[in-house]
Amino acid sequence: MQTKIKSLDHGFSIWICHASGRFKVCRGGQWLGDSHRTMEDAKKYVLRQRAAQMRAARKEPLQPRDLFSPEETATILAALRCLQEAMAHHSGYAKALYAEYFAGIEPLDHDDIDALCEFINR
Question: Does the pTM exceed 0.70?
Answer without folding.
Answer: no
